[in-house]
Design goal:
D-Maltodextrin-Binding Protein, domain 2, Arc Repressor Mutant, subunit A, 10 helices, alpha/beta, eight-stranded mixed beta sheet, 3 domains, two-stranded parallel sheet
């Protein structure tokens, strides 16, 4: 049989194509893989030469795949999904004694409250499995799932394009300075919030908050926009505004602030997501099953 080695793309070249599909520039895609602009250009040209077709439309603004590139991309994703399955299945032959599992987490609600007990239980059962968690915005966790960079992500639901499992209902609460004029109320309405400076979060609940005001035909008085939870809490504590945050993201106590219910109540659903529950690697399936068991136990305990 004739060898195909000279005409076979390398994994590094194929990984570059994945990065290009979700980047704004060729150099930026290479930088994500630790490549210099020169090395990136060389690797792309080598891949196109190997495949015998152009993959990038160099006349487009930003990065745009050619028709051939778009057709090839799903198969490249399958290559990396298969490679991950090879590695994790091999590890499973030893009874899940070793291996690596990559997860995504959309922010503080999942990273602080939902993942720790799940991972603690998982480590007790499978101490040899190395779990790597990458925290990114919800949309980027979705993209990492699609690109097979992670097997499971903690995301806000619904996500109809994925198989999902509900972990928690995350109530939205109002965060006030402890001496604020609304502090004596048991619940705070959106109209009351709209009358005060708002410290708006850039994290996962930003879209939900915007929709709440839109449905009530109210315009929030946004004084500050921040992505870090501790920054928001400190700004509120120092009297720079009030905020609306997801309860699972919040510490039990923070000096200078108090939490009050939002009226009307609003919440978001948080859960696990994967591309296909039936095609998870053994390690990922073990974590998925562990989450389902813990959910059933919480239901039993609450009865």
């Amino acid at each position: 049989m004739k060898s195909l080695t000279s005409k076979t793309p390398t994994l590094h070249q194929l990984e570059l194509l994945l990065a290009l599909a979700s980047s704004d520039g060729i150099a930026g895609a290479g930088a994500r893989l630790g490549m210099t602009p020169s090395a990136t250009s060389h690797a792309l040209k080598a891949l196109e030469s190997t495949l015998g077709t152009s993959l990038i439309d160099r006349n487009a603004t930003g990065v745009a795949l050619t028709y051939a590139g778009e057709q090839i991309l799903p198969h490249v994703r399958d290559v990396f999904a298969a490679l991950q399955l090879v590695q994790t299945t091999a590890a499973a032959s030893a009874g899940l004694k070793t291996g690596k599992l990559r997860l995504g987490s959309f922010g503080a609600s999942s990273s602080l409250k939902l993942l720790p007990p799940l991972l603690e239980s998982f480590r007790q059962r499978y101490p040899g499995i190395e779990v790597f968690v990458s925290e990114k915005p919800d949309s980027e966790v979705e993209q990492d799932l699609i690109e097979r960079r992670i097997e499971i992500g903690v995301v806000t639901l619904p996500k109809p394009q994925f198989d999902t499992h509900l972990l928690a209902i995350d109530e939205m609460v109002v965060v006030l300075p402890e001496n604020h004029e609304l502090a004596s109320a048991s619940a705070v309405s959106l109209s009351q919030i709209a009358a005060h400076p708002l410290v708006l979060t850039h994290a996962g609940s930003q879209g939900l908050i915007a929709r709440l005001f839109e449905r009530s035909s109210l315009r929030p008085n946004v004084a500050h926009e921040m992505s870090q939870l501790l920054s928001i809490l400190e700004f509120v504590a120092r009297g720079n505004g009030i905020s609306i945050l997801a309860s699972l993201a919040l510490p039990a106590h923070y000096p200078g602030v108090i939490y009050r219910a939002l009226s009307p109540r609003a919440s978001r659903r948080v859960g696990l997501a994967c591309l296909n529950e039936d095609r998870l690697s053994p390690a990922a399936l073990a974590l998925w099953s562990q989450a389902k068991k813990m959910g059933k136990q919480r239901t039993i305990d609450s009865v």
